[in-house]
Design brief:
- The protein is α/β, with parallel strands linked by helices and 201 residues long.
- The protein is 34% helix and 23% strand.
- The protein has a single domain, classed as Formyl transferase, N-terminal domain (Rossmann fold).
- The protein contains 6 helices and 9 strands; from the N terminus they run βαβαβαβαβαββαββ.
- It is globular and about 50 Å long.
- The structure holds 5-O-phosphono-beta-D-ribofuranosylamine.
């Protein structure tokens, strides 16, 4: 599996994926890390692991289709066949999804379909949920909406702040994402309509 990881920020999920590859838990080649934000802290992880990086600012493109067209070209140049969004803060279009059908994944810090979008941990706290978690899913055109591959539940504690809850969820994210990607690498994941066969590692 020739993997590209797309980030916009700190890149702790990127780091978890790269660690899993380095330790042989994820049979993938990390061909490229792409960011839409030149200042993304996660670029340091990529550089430390000696992985090629690309910066494609969304501000340089007229619309999402133009952005994704350039993105697909960059991914193809690096021989990528699978795309992992890891804190990538842009919606993707059919231009990207059509180029890599069934091969674009995302991770979200809640038990979808609860709390999609930004500040999922804050949403869970404000709602008063007692359980939230992490979800790995196939990406479709809608935000945090595609077929669910794997989920892990995380308790919400009485004295949680957004930060303590986010940290507890993040531990599960870092465990779950490499496991789900490994299933894809092994050909154990299949999409059937909206349902995923072989998910939930
Ligand atoms: C994670 O919580 C992920 O679930 C969400 O954005 C955050 C990215 O964190 N999509 P990081 O950049 O991987 O540390």
């Amino acid at each position: 599996m020739k993997l590209a990881i797309l980030i916009s920020g700190r890149g702790s999920n990127l780091e978890a994926i790269l660690r899993a590859i380095a330790e042989g838990r994820l049979e993938a080649s990390p061909n490229l890390v792409v960011t839409n934000r030149a200042g993304a802290g996660g670029l340091d992880h990529a550089r430390r692991h000696g992985i090629p990086t690309g910066v494609l600012s969304h501000l340089d493109f007229a619309d999402r289709n133009a952005y994704d067209t350039a993105l697909v070209q960059l991914l193809r140049e690096h021989g990528v066949d699978t795309v992992a969004l890891a804190g990538f803060d842009r919606l993707v279009t059919p231009v990207l999804l059509g180029a890599f059908p069934g091969r674009v994944l995302n991770i979200h810090p809640a038990l979808l379909p609860a709390f999609p979008g930004l500040h999922a941990q804050r949403q869970a706290l404000e709602y008063g949920a007692r359980v939230t978690g992490a979800t790995v899913h196939f990406v479709d055109e809608q935000m945090d909406h595609g077929a669910i591959i794997a989920q892990a539940a995380v308790p919400v504690l009485d004295d949680d702040s957004e930060e303590t809850l986010a940290a507890r969820i993040l531990l599960e994210e870092h465990r779950l994402y490499p496991l789900a990607l490994q299933r894809l690498a092994r050909g154990q994941l299949r999409l059937s309509g909206r349902r995923v066969i072989g998910g939930d590692p």
